[in-house]
Design goal:
The complex is a heterodimer. Chain A is of the alpha/beta class. Chain A contains 28 helices and 21 strands. In chain A, helix 26 links the parallel strand 20 and strand 21. Chain A is globular, with a radius of gyration of 30 Å. In chain B, a hairpin with a 2-residue loop joins strand 17 and strand 18. Classes of the chains: A alpha/beta, B alpha+beta. At the A-B interface, loops of A face helix 2 of B.
């Protein structure tokens, strides 16, 4: 909290009341005649065409799903098809005034939005720009397919390209917009400003805010639209995204041209159903969705309900709202009322709605109604509209024919190239900066008080006699992280860092102390206590082209960002066909002392999820080198830090932690102590307990232990560990994650598979108990201790002469505990 | 009725053979006695003849296939006749490595495999088979490997690992307590192979070379030699013996054989004879080092290295101590010829069939070399060329006399330097006093 904002008790305790302004509902009420000064006849007809393109595209998919054919050509599409038949006016109206600089994010039901935004972009771009975009996409592969059959202008070609690329993507073809890896619910095409659609309801609710943050921080033109469903109003990430977007600080604390609201519209495509649940009247309580805006900020998010069955009403609304955003008064909430005739999916029997209701909406169908008003006002005769329909059907059929042809549109050959998708999980880039330019800062790096203070510290923990310097004098692990991050702040202008208490406080564990003085608000700020939005916005920020370090204050709070960490962050690089990069580092602090909800090591959970890199350094040297590597890369990295050792000095790296820049490649374990009789592989702060155990083993039992610090979980190079195990014949693995399902078991299994013949006993995993983490005073019974390690070695690997074990590592106990589920 | 053609069993120790060439092809007319195919064992090659006449209806293995003995490889019959397909392989050519070693108390004076038991790969103690498995002895993979490598009998070891598992230190203790050179115990280091790789990398890029596939025999020799040098603590002592008597006898024998048409006794025959006599006086050398014990033999089973076109072969002359020099000479010649013609009984080629080996490079003018142990044998004698050496002839006269070089390689794990030297001196004595 900034000191300059004084919370005056006299003011805040004063009696008063909150008043609300009214929220417009379906206020647009203009006829075609009245809009002729805004639109040419061609514009009116183009709106009609775009709506019909969506209608026919979705109808085609409906036919395929229900009848396995379209216009006589048979095809089976086993994948999803969440159709938006009935919602065309909302999509076309939304896209009409958006440029390619304006990004839209979607939902599982966004085919219409892709097409509408694509058609709008094609209309706006000149031929050269279109050709350039089409030839650049996967080396023109998609273009070459449509080029042969396409007749007419470059714009016609681009329409074919759009239809084909989207459809081939839906059908999982290698020639689709995302090489078939996105599919129906995730298809997108960034050159037209179409950003990922999202199969998780409300998934775009916070990701889109991150893209808006990117535009603001990096002064990029354009706005961001989150097209999400009405039912997503019930999702935490959407609320968190709204909270984040509406933070006061954008107006009160951000300075100069950075001051002002985020350029984002939360556009609720309100088709009034969340699958079969009626949002108004059953599953939500807002009566009219737009009402929600009233509670968010004094501007009431400029909320409005607009009739999504009238394309001109939606166009009008977006024109006005876009102006608000460009005026830096966002965010905006739009409740775009619409209706879908098709079910949630083809398997939906519509048991939740009456025939009468469906018929009533068909009666006011937007395409029918808009068409009638066009003929009534004399913009076009019925035959013109019929011609448009016939032409569109032809285009759709042609795209369909091409996209289902296995020779023209093959799928990825995973038999021939089994590693193809695996190679796409990471971009493995190395980039000093994601954007060019001079990084904004408040002072030169050398002038920073923390930088100066650190320079006086001892970069190796021990003096020449081997005596440790005092803790305060030692260069600590937190200093290592700080040095890497501040260095990158001065290298990469796109880098931003945020999380809870990151500014002023300097992070709950003082990693960022000194950073507040160095960085302006738009590069370092406090977020709401919204872990979902912290990670979600970081994803949007990275996806849009920036680099970001987001912080989760306690590992336990990762659960609050579950969807973002498990479903979003790891997926988009591969799901985009490697078009998107994700230079996002999530710092996760692993606690202790604070009991069951503040002390868990969940590194195993994230290591399980494909698409994330996971590191857990335990020394200042490793922390700095790994953070440097993480920040140089272009992949999502979950960067674990143990609160137990933020203050640890450098015990291993001779010569101390280098002052200059260096990287430690992700995935390389490090031998911290050489030995010959047993290998101990540790993750995180357990390294120091293993070292204690090694000392006891050596002094008391004459066993020499080799200690390897895993440093990374994903990726991981097993070779040094295997070499060690082949030498010692024995292996113990330890870390602070509770034992059941711990990643250590995976490592033990892999090593056993490869080095079985070299083992003198099965590897033993010594993790934490499968309990709640108890109070600090009882923690020694929960987390692995040196004594446990000795006991486990004695009982399971090599009995130690004269040793009296205290902890029970017997088969019987293991089996018994397992039976009880602990 | 169609008649199956089976892979013959060539000797007790042979479990499988490699088909080297099909002389007849599927569909060919064959007569009884025609050569159907050639095949080879570890050390010899053979040809299989058709037992019956007819059409070669089918062949079930290709050239290069390793076929367990007594397996049906082909079938001969009348065209169109039905025949049984080749039954699924009854057993793999090589059973997994033994779990148990033979009883430590064995005093069997025959190093040959015991008839009726499944033969094992030579050099490895026979498997106790099912009993060993049923016992479910706990032994760590590492301990098992080390025991196998050093021929340590794991039976009777009380494992000190968890649940009585035999672990590495138990094997190490057993090796130490058995009086073996504990210091020679090398854990799991394999011989470095990187040198070949790097040479290959350096020179291969310049081209101008040919890769030669290795014959079965070559591969066996390679493995055996490498194993010998890796596992045994071998070293070589050299001595030279006055060869005047040898040369005199040789001359006499040569003249005799020309006159009588009888066999001509060679220098090598005489040295072999001397060695056999020396072995009788030094029974500690006449045996095998078996890791946890030393087995000495009552009789001398003399292995003799023979150079053939197919590579080095070492046939054994059983009970060599029963023969006089003439008998010895005759039998050695027969064995050498059998080897050269590839008709030697493979059972006589196993290293464990012999109790001691003599190898001779004297014919090549070699004056000194270090023979490689034919493990598990404890020692091997190398015979060198005859050279001339100054010698005190008595009466203040120094003259040149012919001497023959003798090089004894022995396994220091089994024998110390002094007894080995005494044994070598004994051979020298026998050579110099040969009758």
């Amino acid at each position: 909290m900034p000191k300059k904002q004084f919370i005056d008790p006299g003011k805040v305790r004063k009696p008063g009341k909150i008043t609300f302004n009214s929220i417009p509902v379906n206020q647009y009420n203009r006829e075609i005649e009245e809009e002729r000064n805004q639109y040419t006849d061609d514009d009116f007809l183009r709106i009609y065409r775009d709506m019909f393109v969506i209608r026919e595209f979705e109808t085609m998919l409906h036919e395929i799903k229900t009848k396995n054919e379209y216009q006589g050509l048979a095809y089976n599409h086993p994948g999803p098809a969440h159709l938006s038949i009935g919602q065309e006016a909302a999509a076309v109206g939304m896209a009409y005034h958006l440029t390619v600089d304006d990004f839209i994010f979607g939902s599982h039901r966004s085919h219409g939005e892709i097409l509408a935004k694509g058609l709008s972009a094609i209309h706006q771009l000149d031929d050269d720009a279109l050709m350039q975009i089409m030839s650049a996409h996967f080396g023109g592969r998609c273009l070459r397919i449509v080029e042969q059959a396409s007749k007419g202008s470059v714009k016609d070609l681009a329409v074919d390209f759009l239809l084909y690329g989207t459809l081939a993507e839906i059908f999982a073809r290698d020639t689709g917009f995302n090489r078939g890896l996105g599919g129906s619910m995730h298809a997108f095409f960034t050159p037209f400003g179409v950003y990922p659609n999202n199969a998780i309801v409300g998934g775009s609710g916070d990701i889109s805010v991150g893209a808006a943050l990117y535009k603001k921080v990096n002064r990029k033109p354009g706005i961001v639209v989150a097209n999400i469903g009405d039912a997503s109003m019930g999702c935490g990430p959407v609320w968190e995204g709204i909270s984040f977007a509406a933070m006061d600080q954008f107006r009160t604390l951000w300075q100069g041209e950075y001051q002002g609201g985020l350029p984002v519209i939360f556009n609720f495509m309100n088709n009034q159903y969340g699958m079969g649940g009626q949002t108004q009247g059953e599953t939500m309580g807002y009566d009219i969705l737009a009402r929600v805006g009233a509670g968010v900020n004094p501007e009431m998010m400029h909320a409005e309900r607009v009739d999504g069955y009238d394309p001109l009403a939606v166009i009008d609304a977006f024109k006005r709202k876009k102006e608000i955003l460009l005026d830096k008064k966002g965010p905006v909430l739009l409740d775009t009322l619409t209706y879908r005739y098709s079910g949630h999916s083809p398997s939906d029997a519509s048991s939740y709605r009456s025939k009468e209701e469906l018929e009533a909406w068909l009666e006011v169908d937007s395409i029918k109604g808009y068409g009638e008003s066009l003929t009534k006002s004399g913009v076009a005769g019925e035959s013109v509209l019929a011609d448009i329909q016939r032409h569109v059907k032809e285009l759709i059929y042609n795209a369909f024919k091409l996209s289902v042809h296995d020779d023209v549109s093959p799928r990825m050959d995973l038999r021939k190239s089994p590693g193809l998708i695996g190679e796409m999980m990471f971009s493995d880039g190395s980039q000093d900066a994601m954007l060019e330019g001079e990084p904004d800062s408040l002072m030169p790096l050398e002038g920073n008080p923390r930088v100066k203070q650190i320079l006086k510290k001892e970069r190796f923990a021990f003096d020449k006699e081997g005596k440790p310097f005092s803790k305060l004098k030692q260069f600590q692990l937190r200093d290592g992280i700080f040095e890497a991050i501040i260095d990158r702040f001065y290298k990469d202008p796109s880098l931003v860092a945020y999380g809870e208490e990151n500014r002023d406080w300097g992070g709950a564990f003082a990693v960022y102390r000194g950073l507040t003085e160095a960085m302006p608000y738009h590069r370092l700020f406090n977020s709401p206590i919204s872990e979902g939005a912290i990670v979600g916005t970081a994803i949007g920020y990275g996806m849009a082209g920036g680099r970001v370090v987001a912080e989760i204050m306690y590992c336990d709070f990762l659960g609050r960002a579950g969807d973002e960490v498990f479903n979003q962050l790891p997926k988009w690089q591969a799901m985009s066909g490697n078009i998107i990069k994700m230079p996002v580092v999530i710092r996760v602090s692993v606690g202790s002392k604070y009991g069951a909800q503040h002390s868990q090591d969940w590194s195993s959970l994230v290591a399980h999820i494909p698409g994330l890199k996971v590191v857990f350094p335990a020394t200042p040297y490793d922390a700095k080198g790994l953070m440097n590597a993480a920040l140089q890369g272009t992949d999502p990295v979950i960067f674990f830090e143990s609160q137990r050792i933020y203050d640890i000095g450098e015990h291993f790296h001779q010569g101390g932690v280098p002052k200059g820049y260096y990287e430690i490649p992700l995935g390389e374990p490090d031998i911290k102590k050489e030995g010959s009789d047993i290998t101990m592989l540790t993750i995180g702060a357990t390294l120091y307990r293993a070292l204690e155990a090694a000392e006891i083993l050596e002094k008391k039992y004459g066993l020499s232990a080799e200690i390897i610090d895993a440093r990374s979980l994903v990726p991981f190079n097993y070779e040094p560990v295997l070499e060690s195990v082949k030498k010692t014949g024995r292996l113990l693995l330890s870390g602070d994650a509770n034992t059941r399902g711990a990643y250590l078991n995976d490592m033990a299994k892999t090593i056993t598979d490869i080095a079985f013949d070299y083992l003198d006993a099965p590897p033993v995993v010594v993790g934490a108990r499968n309990w709640i983490v108890p109070a600090h005073e009882l923690e020694d019974y929960y987390f692995p201790q040196a004594e446990w390690i000795i006991d486990a070695i004695h009982q399971r690997i090599i009995p130690l002469k004269g040793h009296q074990p205290v902890n029970d590592f017997s088969d019987e106990t293991m089996l018994d505990q397992s039976k009880k589920g602990v | 009725m169609a008649v199956p053609v089976v892979m013959p069993r060539q000797g007790q120790s042979v479990e499988s053979c490699v088909i080297t060439q099909w002389v007849k092809n599927k569909g060919d007319q064959v007569n009884a006695g025609d050569i159907l195919f050639s095949y080879e064992t570890d050390k010899a090659s053979f040809e299989a003849e058709a037992d019956v006449s007819g059409t070669l209806l089918d062949v079930f293995f290709e050239e290069g296939d390793e076929v367990p003995v007594l397996t049906t490889v082909a079938v001969i019959g009348k065209p169109g006749e039905t025949y049984e397909r080749r039954p699924a392989d009854a057993k793999k050519p090589e059973e997994s490595v033994m779990e148990e070693a033979p009883p430590a108390t064995t005093t069997d004076n025959q190093p040959q495999e015991i008839p009726g038991k499944t033969p094992r790969a030579s050099g490895l103690p026979p498997n106790e088979g099912e009993t060993g498995r049923q016992m479910r002895k706990r032994i760590s993979p590492l301990a098992r490997r080390i025991a196998a490598m050093h021929h340590v009998d794991t039976r009777g070891i009380d494992g000190t690992g968890p649940k009585g598992r035999i672990i590495e230190r138990d094997i190490r203790d057993r090796m130490l307590s058995a009086g073996k050179a504990g210091t020679s115990f090398v854990p799991e280091k394999q011989p470095p192979v990187h040198s070949t790789a790097s040479i290959d990398g350096a020179i291969a890029s310049t081209g101008g070379y040919t890769d030669h596939a290795m014959s079965n025999v070559r591969k066996i020799i390679a493995a055996k030699m490498a194993e010998s040098l890796q596992t045994a603590a071998q070293l070589t002592h050299h001595i030279s013996a006055d060869a005047r008597k040898l040369l005199a006898l040789r001359k006499e024998a040569k003249e005799n054989s020309v006159q009588t048409g009888g066999i001509s006794i060679t220098i090598n025959d005489m040295v072999c004879y001397a060695a056999v006599r020396a072995l009788k006086k030094h029974p500690g050398i006449n045996g095998h080092f078996l890791g946890d014990r030393i087995r000495t033999f009552d009789k001398v089973h003399l292995g003799v290295a023979v150079d053939t076109d197919r590579g080095l072969m070492v046939p054994v002359l059983k009970n060599a101590d029963d023969l006089n020099v003439q008998g010895l000479s005759a039998r050695l010649k027969q064995l050498a010829n059998d080897c050269k013609e590839g008709v030697i009984d493979p059972g006589l080629l196993s290293a464990s069939s012999a109790s001691f080996t003599v190898t001779n490079l004297g014919a090549f003018g070699i004056e000194l070399f270090t023979p490689v142990l034919n493990i598990p044998q404890i020692a091997i004698l190398g015979v060198n060329a005859i050279t001339y050496k100054p010698c005190d002839l008595g009466g203040g006269t120094i003259g040149l006399i012919p001497v023959i070089g003798l090089s004894l390689t022995y396994d220091h794990r089994a024998v110390d330097g002094a007894p080995a030297s005494r044994f070598l001196s004994e051979i020298k004595y026998e050579v110099e006093h040969i009758q």
